[in-house]
Specification:
Largest sheet: none
Shape: elongated
Helix content: 55-70%
Order of helices and strands: HHHHH
């Protein structure tokens, strides 16, 4: 059985800082989406969004609440635990088309 590597205090702090920077970047993306500064299509391609849950990304759109985001995902046949990087090309197309028609 492989043991996890033992990290030094400096390595742990560096990893924590890296994780916090990634969280801040994702939060900034969500704020930009909420403000309408970025489109859903552009957000789906943004590297910062790849680790976000699709539901979180949809809930960041103006006028879309958590519950509504879940309903949209069910309607478009997207699993509730799907992350953006796990979306297939057809699922991406359906998401973009759904919000273009609104």
């Amino acid at each position: 059985m492989n043991a996890l590597p033992t990290l030094t205090k400096d390595e742990r702090l560096c990893n924590l800082e890296h994780a916090m920077a990634a969280r801040r970047a994702r939060a900034e993306l969500r704020r930009s989406l909420k403000a309408g500064n970025i489109t859903l299509d552009a957000a789906l391609e943004d590297p910062r969004a790849q680790r976000l849950y699709v539901r979180q990304l949809l809930a960041s759109l103006p006028g879309v609440a958590q519950r509504h985001a879940g309903e949209i995902m069910v309607r478009l046949d997207i699993a509730p635990n799907r992350r953006v990087h796990g979306l297939g090309p057809r699922q991406r197309e359906r998401l973009v088309a759904f919000f273009e028609n609104k």
